[in-house]
Write a structure and sequence with these properties.
It is elongated and about 65 Å long. The chain has 2 domains: 117 residues, no CATH class; 98 residues, Serine Threonine Protein Phosphatase 5, Tetratricopeptide repeat (Alpha Horseshoe). α2 packs antiparallel against α3, α7 packs antiparallel against α8 and α10 packs antiparallel against α11. The protein is 67% helix and 0% strand. It has 264 residues and is mainly α.
């Protein structure tokens, strides 16, 4: 049985998990805000000017360059964001996983997949597995784009080891097994996703299971799953948000971005 396309099974999902399950709470200045009388552009220019002044006071502080990159990223100035992150990495002796992770995000926006993979791999290298799933999920996403399905599976399986209570990784693993035409494992992981109270991709998981010839119980077909399951799922998501890196930008989930790698 031919699996449903990866575009339909995982396109929007894959990044959103990195994604719904990929945020970290950090102390921030007021860099995310601007006064009502300022335009976003004038705010960005003023913010960058202030930050560059700080680099003269603290030339070896990588965090200032990281904040400059953040402003450039928000403005869609990805080349400038990449340059600032490269500078931050050079000052941090190449070992800060957060900088590598976000530089991978920038290179994905620039459609430079090889560089994105390199920095996600470095983020994985320097991240403690017991804390964060985000870098591995991002790396899995790139592997999936490259149709390196076994390597994508390996990374998502590690995400499950790190966050076994997060149902969304089970969905991604099921989608990858579906691509590999491994019906048994695809069914296993889609069922696990539903059993764990996954909501975001519930209708898609049900559709895929039915495509694979599996009858889904009525109580699992609804998005209003049993209250206990939903509460557990919500708790898992909240916990993940406290343990994982920032999410990838929504634009990376644009289906046209995946069609390039998934269409035969």
């Amino acid at each position: 049985m031919k699996p449903l396309s990866f575009l339909r099974a995982i396109a929007v999902a894959c990044v959103v998990a990195i994604i719904g399950s990929a945020c970290v709470t950090t102390e921030r200045s007021d860099s995310s805000f601007y006064l009502p009388e300022e335009s976003p552009r004038s705010w960005a220019d003023n913010r960058i000017e202030d930050l560059r002044a700080k680099t003269k006071e603290r030339p070896r502080d990588p965090e200032i360059h990281y904040e400059i990159a953040e402003v450039h990223f928000q403005q869609g100035e990805f080349r400038d964001a990449a340059a600032s992150l490269e500078r931050a990495i050079s000052l941090e002796e190449d070992t800060n996983p957060r900088y590598h992770y976000h530089l991978g995000r920038v290179y994905l926006n620039l459609r430079e997949r090889d560089k994105a993979r390199k920095h996600f791999e470095l983020a994985v290298k320097y991240t403690r597995d017991t804390r964060y799933s985000g870098p591995r999920a991002a790396l899995a996403y790139v592997f999936a784009l490259e149709k390196r399905l076994d390597e994508a599976l390996e990374q998502f399986q590690r995400c499950i080891e790190i966050e076994p209570s997060n149902p969304e990784f089970y969905y991604f693993v099921g989608a990858l097994y579906d691509l590999k035409r491994d019906d048994e494992n695809a069914i296993r992981y889609f069922r696990e996703y539903l059993d764990r109270g996954g909501r975001k991709y519930r209708s898609r998981a049900v559709s895929l299971l039915e495509h694979l010839g599996v009858e889904v119980a009525p109580e699992l077909r609804r998005n209003d799953a049993p209250r206990g399951e939903l509460e557990e799922s919500a708790a898992a998501t909240r916990e993940a948000e406290l343990r994982s890196p920032d999410d990838l930008p929504d634009g990376i989930a644009d289906p046209s971005f995946l069609e390039e790698a998934t269409d035969e």
